[in-house]
Amino acid sequence: MKKLLSLLAVVLIAATVNAQKKIAVVTFFADKQVDMSDVNMDAATLAADLADEPTFNLKPLVDKFHDRFFNEYAKKFPFELLHETQVTGNPEYQNFKPEFAPGVTAARYVTADGYIAINHNYGRKNEQDMLKLFKEADGVMFVFITFRMNKGFGVGGTATTKMQAYTNITLYNKEGKKVFSINENANSKKKGMMVGGVPVMDPDKVLPMCESALNELMEDLDKRIAKIIEKSAKKL
Known about the structure:
With 236 residues, the chain is an alpha/beta fold. It contains seven helices and seven strands; from the N terminus they run αβααβααβαββββα. Strand 6 and strand 7 (198-199) form a beta hairpin. It is globular and about 55 Å long.
């Protein structure tokens, strides 16, 4: 009995310590440029044309993923998230100019309300600057989603296409060390078409595929995210 009580005490102390950890989510965005490399086309031109099309509006999808993340996934983390306004309401954050890969600008991305697009995969300056900016936090987290069109079954120039949604959720601790990086993807149930070897790129057709893929991705995360992050608290 004494051993059991001691064990429970250790668990409670550990839980209390972990609950005191605070993490700042410093970006939340989607890339408007769909990866077209799998359909063997002039991918850059097709993707750029779609990204520039005003009716290709990914904002509702970003908002859907944002709400799921903060209302459901956040509850499974072994730490607390700073209130979003502590990040988005910070004047230094709003004036921050992140580094992007050559030829890429912020216009390529659509963000959740108040956030700026920051890609932690480009160099290390972006995450280091965020850690300096949010010194009150025990770490910073980057969240983004991208989409990729994949070729399905077909003969000759006629084939089906599917959309794949991918998310990257990465956490760095105060020392700038990566605590975890969640990389998950899922394919859409909705399908598109390639006709004459050219995928149908009408936003009215592509957007439902993106939403379908994102829905599948969120369902997968519901099942997996707790297991993925259960060891993360030890590295904070």
